[in-house]
Design brief:
Order of helices and strands: HHH
Strand content: under 5%
Number of helices: 3
Helix content: 55-70%
Distance between the termini: 30 Å
Radius of gyration: 13 Å
Length: 75
Amino acid sequence: MLHQLIEVGTSDRILWGCDTWNSEESYGTKLIMADVLARVLDEKITRGYFNKHDAYNIIENIMRNNARQLFKIEA
């Protein structure tokens, strides 16, 4: 799904979050999301869809910036 979201839209409309009961579950879901991002973005870079700099920007957007903007969270 992440492949399609990146191809169809822009990374400024995707964000990550979880709804878990404890910190261990939250950490586990973060690790899974990091793995999914790494795999998808590695494939996009390998196929020439974009470069590493673009991939780092996508990671920052999905994991941090988009939620901050949506929920109006100050740094």
